[in-house]
Design a protein that fits this description.
Blueprint lengths: L1 E4 L4 E3 L9 E2 L15 E2 L3 E4 L2 E7 L4 E3 L3 H8 L11 E4 L2 E6 L2 E3 L6 E4 L2 E6 L2 E3 L16 E11 L5 E3 L4 H7 L3 E20 L7 E21 L7 E22 L17 E21 L1 H4 L9 E5 L2
Parallel strand pairs: 1-6, 2-7, 5-8, 6-9, 7-10, 8-11, 9-12, 10-13, 12-14, 13-14, 14-16, 15-16, 16-17, 17-18, 18-19, 19-20
Antiparallel strand pairs: 3-4
InterPro entries: GH28_Enzymes, Glyco_hydro_28, PbH1, Pectin_lyas_fold, Pectin_lyase_fold/virulence
Organism: Musa troglodytarum
Keywords: Glycosidase, Hydrolase
Length: 310
């Protein structure tokens, strides 16, 4: 099937949060990402589907009208985890192109347990202070291509994930074969992130030709003790940064845990990371390697070639 938005068309989510349906938590997370229990269903969602296209004419927009949800988060009045704007689960052969996604209540585009997903020529927008409005989060998915996108949100522009602590380890589905290229954008958090939920493993990632500005962290590889899993075979090449707080950060002390039952001895590994041809202007800190934390449980190789003032 094809969901086609005509030129200038806008699909708006209701702001009636009291009647928003609930669904079960993802098995690789074990609970809602923000709160225990169930979670609000995504505004547009599909489960077990294939051969689907979402596209639009000029300025066709999907608007989550998320400010009511952001205010509930700030006021700590949420009862369940906020809805994503778009989520495909257990699906394959999906193309998302030429659509404007804006004002998501939570994560914007979330393919989870999917394969063969192409996301191209999309624009993803949310206010700089909107909480947890990640742009695109491929999660326990394989063969995902994200290209020619503009993203400006309140959280990570792209974050590769694969499950949360003991639930992600038990589910055991990695994210693999992820390509991110020709992306530009800004965020108070990370431009390109891996993690922090990587308990099912992340491997074979290519990131190239990225342009970041007014961003917290440029390239951010993040995990934590108790995650388990691995991050390996990651190549990042040709990145331009302007006004970024930390250019490159590899850290092993990021993120919380779903409950008290996670295995404190489940130590993740980070191995085979190559970052090269990175250029920056007005960078506060070039590289932040958390040696003390990573050395406890990780091995990584990070040959870096940089120019400019990064």
């Amino acid at each position: 099937m094809t969901l086609y938005l005509a030129r200038g068309a806008v699909i708006k989510a209701t702001q009636d949060t009291w009647n928003w349906p609930l669904v079960d938590p993802l098995p690789s997370y074990g609970r809602g990402r923000e709160l225990p229990g169930r979670r609000y269903v995504s505004f547009i969602q599909g489960d077990g589907i294939s051969d689907v296209i979402i596209t639009a004419g000029e300025n066709g927009t999907i608007d989550g009208q998320g400010d009511v949800w952001w205010n509930m988060w700030r006021q700590r009045s949420l009862h369940f985890t906020r809805p994503n704007l778009l989520e495909f689960k257990n699906s394959r052969d999906v193309i998302i192109s030429n659509v404007v996604f804006q004002n998501s209540p939570f994560w914007n585009i979330h393919p989870v347990y999917c394969s063969n997903v192409v996301i191209r020529y999309v624009t993803v927008l949310a206010p700089y202070d909107s909480p947890n409005t990640d742009g695109i989060d491929p999660d326990s998915s394989s063969n995902v291509c994200i290209e020619d996108a503009h993203i400006a949100t309140g959280d990570d522009l792209v974050a590769i994930k694969s499950g949360w602590d003991e639930y992600g380890i038990a589910y055991g589905r990695p994210s693999s074969g992820i390509t991110i290229r020709r992306l530009q954008g800004s965020s108070p958090f990370s431009g390109i992130a891996i993690g922090s939920e990587t308990s099912g493993g992340v491997e074979n990632v290519l990131v190239e030709n990225i342009n970041l500005y007014n961003t917290g962290f440029g390239i951010h590889i993040k995990t934590n003790a108790g995650r388990g899993g691995y991050i390996r075979n990651v190549t990042v090449v040709n990145v331009s940064m302007n006004k970024v707080r930390k250019g490159i950060r590899i850290a092993g002390d990021v993120g919380d845990h779903p409950d008290e039952y996670f295995n404190r001895y489940a130590m993740p590994t980070v191995d085979g990371v190559t970052i090269k041809n990175v250029r920056g202007v007005d960078i506060q800190q070039r590289i932040d390697r958390r040696h003390q934390e990573l050395a406890l449980y990780s091995t990584y190789a990070c040959p870096m070639s940089s120019s400019g003032v990064l």
